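#help-structures
NK: newbie question, is this the right format to request a structure? protein is Type I-B CRISPR-associated protein Cas8b/Csh1
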Amino acid sequence: MSTLDSETFEQYRPPDPITSLRRVQALYGALAEAASGDAVGGGMPEEFGLYYTPGELEGFTTDDPAEEKRYVISVEIDMTGETVTAADIDISVDFLDSRTVDRLGFARYPWGRGIDHSITRRGAKGGSDADTATTYCIDCLERWTNADGREPAIGEIAETHPDGWVIQLLQELGEDEDVQNEIAALLEERYTDNERVVATVQLKLEPTALEKPPDGDEAGWFYPGEVHVLNAGMKARKDQKLATKNIGPKTESRGESACMVTGEEGEVFGTIEDPLALFTVQHAEKFEGLKKKESWRSHPVSSNAALLLQSGSSLVDACRTTRNGLGVYTLPYFLEMDERKADALYNAIDSLETSAFEESGRHQMYQLEWAVESEEDPELAEQLRFYVISLRNDSGDINVLHEVPDVSLYGPKRIGEAHDEVLHDTSAFGTNGQGGFAFVENWQPITSGTDANDVVNAIVSGRYAWGTMPDMGGDDGAMADDLAEWLTYVLLTGESIPVKRLLEAYVDRIEQELTDDDRRLPTNQIKTQFAQLEALARAELLEGGPNTSALRTPPKTMTDEISTRDDIADDGDPTRIDVRKYRLETFIEGRDSLAANPDRQSAFLIGVLVGMVSSHQTNMRNMNRTVVDQYPPDRMTLEKIVTVWPELVHKSKVYAKDIDWAVETLFPEVMDRETDVLLHPDDWDLSLQDVRFFYALGITYGQRADARAYELEERIDASERSPTDAT
């Protein structure tokens, strides 16, 4: 069922295609207007429709005065006679109900102190006493009409409008002290509360005396929304604010040009009010020519478009979240709009305000597409696009760190599927001892329950990058060079990722974690980085030189069948060393990044041996300082690798005496394979970051190699005892 007024939406919607931030914002304004049901008061022309803000009187009306008192205080003036004096002034104090709101022609000015755009003025939310209400009523006559010279735009309407005499008469009354005293006396008598009030005027007019009369031919009492000249004054004041916004009260930025939103020729403004605070003369990086009075030439926006931007501000804000000290907007839209898409878009944004969304754990972008897909159909969801922008607010100085106008979830979904395959269809992970690494529960990117949708949600929220990239934000949040933000936006856009830069970032994060966590190896981060690296390779997003080609090759798919004893040993009676060797070979041969690059495989195997020796030192010899502490990844160099290998070989032989079933050396499967591929590091064609990452990965593998081999043995035994239990 449609939630929008289709006629209102068609009246205000920007032209297709939706190709800019301004058009997205204007689209949201049209959605907000179509959803509000706000009508032009008193049958006034459409020229005033967007200027009214009746919704701003929410909380100032009452349909049950016994429960809640809300007042409209009107200065009643009979203008049908030849003269008007203080004696002709009256004050009415009535309860304000929702049926009267449209007639008031209210247009809110919410920034700072002062009167509203309309002669109708809203009081304080905290309530107003008689003295304050008196000030409001006098301002309607004196200040708003320009009687005191503070509202020149309205003063010009009084001079040029064919019915300007109405405002001129109000000016005269506003300057009359007797009138002011009469208003004060009447209010002291008739208003004794301290509640929310709305102050306005109510004029008795003869329609035939006006060039632009209200509806009907009979004389009667009219509120401002029914009187054209008062609406014209309201519009003039608002237009003046549009022209002087961010420039100063004595300088205007307006001219004749084509509106950048609608393309229509007419009066345009430069530095108009903007919900994102991007387009001001202080932020000229967005538009190089944005300079004070001439800014309308570089950033021409018509009054209607400017008002739509303001109308849609609440929908824009609904799509805002914070991440790493930044304000991040994920604004959904369709390139081509129609009534069905408008409904789907509005309902999706509206779903962000529900408790179901708050409890779902979904990020806004994921929720928005999910809402369209679940309420409409997948085909429509595929057409959904997002304008994504990250802002840093430094004490009012707005800086745009990232801006991507055409994001879809196609790229993140592709990565999500690839990540799911890495976790469940390759030799990287597993719970049965066959995968290189065990899943980590409560560590979302690498839990056994992680699926493609979880990864998509993590990508759009920034967590997928945050979990692997170094923390560069500091106390004040992310800067322009923040790697987590860079990776997040690359993943959103589907751009290629330089594998060298990725590995550098991985190693920097490992170094940070070592420093922050008492030099403990961050194994969960390393496993997460490895899963991410293989997922990006599987999604074909990595790029680099010839020496990274194997690294960019996706890992092989692995059967989920449990290995048998015959698979592991020719005699069907595998030893622990046989199982470890089988697992190591399966892991290496399952990915070209290791199998097809002897140098990288060497760095990995040295790390594996460091991890295995370290585990033995901790568990069997109760040593507090292990070889991992001696040779941590962040301090490993090619020169050190030359010295660490012989030391590890020696320790492995010495430690073999600690185990009954060990042979000449404790870890022969590693040393045999390393000897087959080992070249002197001076001949390696790898960057230092490449070496350090795969060395760290090897340590992570090696520390649990024996335990994982035991798990596989147990799994095989259980499978052979009861085949049905293994399914």
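mod (FA): yep, format's fine, and the tokens are attached above. The CA atoms of residues 52 and 107 lie 5 Å apart.
NK: thank you!
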